[in-house]
Amino acid sequence: MLTTSIVVAAAVGASAYFGSNNIRELARSDAAVRRASGNESIKRESELLASNIAAAAAIPLAQQAYGEVAPLVAAKMREYPRIQWVVVGTPTGDVIAASDGAPKLDFQDFAETRTKPGLVERTQVAPDRPEWVYGTAIRLGEGVVGQLRMGVSTADLEAELAAALAAADQRASESTRTVWLVAIALLAIGVVVAALLGISTARPLRLLAVQADRIAQGSLDQRVPAERRDEIGLLARNFNFMADRLGQLMVEQAQKVSMERELALARSVQQGMLPPPELVQHGHLKIVGFCEPASTCGGDWWTYRRLTGGRLLMVIGDATGHGVHSAILAGTARGAVEALAEVDEKLLVPEQVLKSIDAAIRNVGEHSLLMTAFAAVFDSNTGVVQYANAGQNFPYVMRMKQARTLGDSSIIAASGNPLGDRMVPLDIRRGTMQLAPGDLFVAFTDGLVERQAASGKLFGDRRLRSIFAGKQVPADPSALTSLREEVKTAVETFAGGTVSQDDITFVLCQFDPPVASGARSRAEAG
Q1: Dihedral sign from CA coordinates of 485, 488, 494, 499
Q2: Quick check: helix, strand or coil at residue 364?
Q3: Spatial distance between the Cα atoms of 189 and 230, rounded to a whole number of angstroms
Q4: Is 129 helix (H, G, I), strand (E, B) or coil?
Q5: H helices within 63-124, ranges in order?
Q6: Measured between alpha carbons, how far is 306 from 454 in angstroms, rounded to an integer?
Q7: Per DSSP, what are the bridge partners of residue 85?
């Protein structure tokens, strides 16, 4: 009977061994899938970056304005940390611009890119190094005006995968230790049972050992009989529970990894739909914004679109709640704006834009999924603003005073009801206003002014306006970006590290035409 007890303990140990190996194998398989997916994503991103840099450098190269190429390359490298170096050369192989750390190149590789427009090729520096070289021809029209080589590193992906594998090994080791503790306990029980019951217990123990070996080999659906009310029955029930938990943990782990991957992809897609963080200048208009979801995905969004005649369309919206369902509603609304723009630019008037969003989301999901939105068309030549509001927080205008200092605020009190409500008739409030030179237009969602501190106090409109009031805004384009960062810092400091309960979005748009000193003085005096 002692032999039987040892066999039982060995079976449990084997189960621990194979279970640990299964966990490690699943982690390695997942790492392989993530490596393939990540490398493919980096490849697509790098090819797109190479094409974008080539397209941006084409005109300076064609005009022999070589001095404009190096700043363009430096800007792209700051924006994308994975780029290690960039070299731009002439069709004959002369180097025009090369970033720090770039190798010496003769541009004799990637010959096929010079004959196939749009082709981006790549090669790995060495099999054991996570470094790649991408190459493409720089074209303007049908002619080749230069060549591009770009070094890209995937070291961050490899580091992430290595950390994931290390964590999986640690979990497997902890699981093994736990099961071995169970094995020791089972062995002790077996010795006691062997001493008390003797030969009468040999048959059920042999059956337990056989079934345990099957589970250890991966048949987690196998169960041992647990009808006995003695120690053998208790051992069988504990073993069945362990098999159940192992199966559940393996399923839960796979589901968790899949869900995290899907949510990360969804966040990446949604962030890609938002305007870039850099300041945009259109005529005499400067616009910059910020959007941060409260969870992985959010219902806040904003967009802009350049129109003919120096005009610019800006839309900001807030779907009910936050999370995946709100992100889907926000994506539908943004798609409605883009679809309207593709049909006819003349339709991009504020009221029609909000009506199109309402039509797109009215029959999506339950009627409780609503959206507030504000749309405005700015004329960069005259400063005239046409706007329409559907339940969004009232925007306001900070008036420019002397020495380019912001003064009083004017609230645009046009409300309307939220979009997408099938129970209430659509009510959109619209209007027109005039911006003076230097005036700052501020639009935002409720998540900004309703951001809570640890005490439960709200950030509020008054505190937001106090950030702008008395603020000097130089003509330097970076001034508006700095003002955005100041708002973000003020909100984060006020929140004191508390978890945000709602998405936060705000947009700053300044009408800033050149004004003669005499004309500005008269405008400030008025």
Answers
A1: negative
A2: coil
A3: 10
A4: coil
A5: 69-79
A6: 41
A7: 151
Are the beta carbons of 458 and 451 closer than 8 angstroms?
yes
**Rounded to an integer, what distance in angstroms lies between the CA atom of residue 98 and that of residue 57?**
13
Question: CA of 4: how far to CAs of 188, 232, 471, in Å?
Answer: 12, 12, 83
Six-digit token pair at 252?
């839960």
Distance CA 291, CA 503 (A): 8
Identify the weakest region by mean pLDDT among 92-96, 450-454, 467-471, 506-510.
Answer: 92-96
Q: Which residues contact 234 (CB under 8 A, 6 or more apart)?
A: 189
Task: At 197, list the tokens.
Answer: 């019951």
Taking the C-alpha atoms of residue 445 and residue 290, their distance in angstroms, rounded to an integer, is 11
Distance CA 104, CA 98 (A): 9
The residue whose two tokens read 């839309």 is 315
> Is it the case that residue 445 has pLDDT exceeding 90?
yes
Token readout for 464 is 């937001």
Complete edge-to-edge strand list for the sheet that includes strand 83-89 = 95-98, 83-89, 143-153, 131-140, 120-124
- Rounded CA-CA distance 137/54 in Å is 7
Cα-Cα-Cα-Cα dihedral sign, residues 511, 515, 519, 525: positive
CB atoms within 10 A of CB 110: 20
**DSSP code at position 458:** B
Q: How many residues does the chain have?
A: 526
What tokens does 92 get?
């004959």
- Assess contact for 16 and 213: CB atoms under 8 A: no
157: Cα separation from own chain's centroid:
16
Q: What is the pLDDT of residues 168-219, one digit of tens each?
A: 788 878 877 887 787 787 677 766 666 666 666 667 677 777 777 777 776 7
Q: For residues 76 and 73, what is the distance between their CA atoms, to the nearest angstrom?
A: 5
CA 205, CA 236: separation in Å to the nearest integer?
Answer: 9
Return the structure tokens found at 120: 């981006």
Residue 525's pLDDT band (boundaries 50, 70, 90)?
Answer: very low
Contact 134, 46 (CB under 8 A): yes
Could you tell me which of 449, 450, 446, 451 has the C-alpha nearest to residue 499? 451
Q: What pLDDT digit, counting tens, does each position of 393-409 carry?
A: 999 999 999 889 999 99
For 203, residues 6+ apart whose C-beta sits below 8 A from its C-beta are none
CA distance 364 to 420: 8
8-state DSSP, 276: P
- The answer to whether the CB of 373 falls within 8 A of the CB of 315 is yes
Report the sign of the C-alpha dihedral through residues 245, 248, 250, 253, in that order: negative
Distance separating the N- and C-terminal Cα atoms of the chain: 104
Q: Cα separation of 248 and 166, whole Å?
A: 22
Distance between CA atoms of residues 526 and 522, nearest Å: 6
Beta carbons within 8 Å of 484's beta carbon, 6+ residues apart: 288, 289, 290, 506, 508
Distance CA 235, CA 188 (A): 11
